[in-house]
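Hi R.,

Here's the input for the LWBT4IAB complex you asked about:
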Amino acid sequence: MLFAVQMTVELPPDLDPQVREELVTTEKEYSQKLQRAGKWPHLWRVVGEYSNLSVFDVSDNAELHDLLWNLPLFKYMHITVTPLAPHPSALAADRQA
Ligand SMILES: O=C(O)CC1=CCC(=O)O1
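And here is the predicted structure with LWBT4IAB in place:
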């Protein structure tokens, strides 16, 4: 199942810089592990915002929930999830859900 997920990061301005660095580093490691596993096939920056637009390829809602819940930056994110279905006019196979 494919889901479009937008994650907008809102770190507290007074967050300790070292904590911030550790969070960003562990977030990168976590996301790259999932990208290599094929669970997170698209990760795009939303231009001009501390936000990304991602596509997840997971078995079900529960798997997506677990992956998002375990994001190191989860508690500093506003997340919206959009379930995707195949579009009848889509040509590219990788655009099918
Ligand atoms: O920078 C972001 O958009 C948050 C994020 C998600 C995966 C990652 O590496 O950073």
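One thing worth noting: The CA atoms of residues 24 and 73 lie 7 Å apart.

Cheers,
M.
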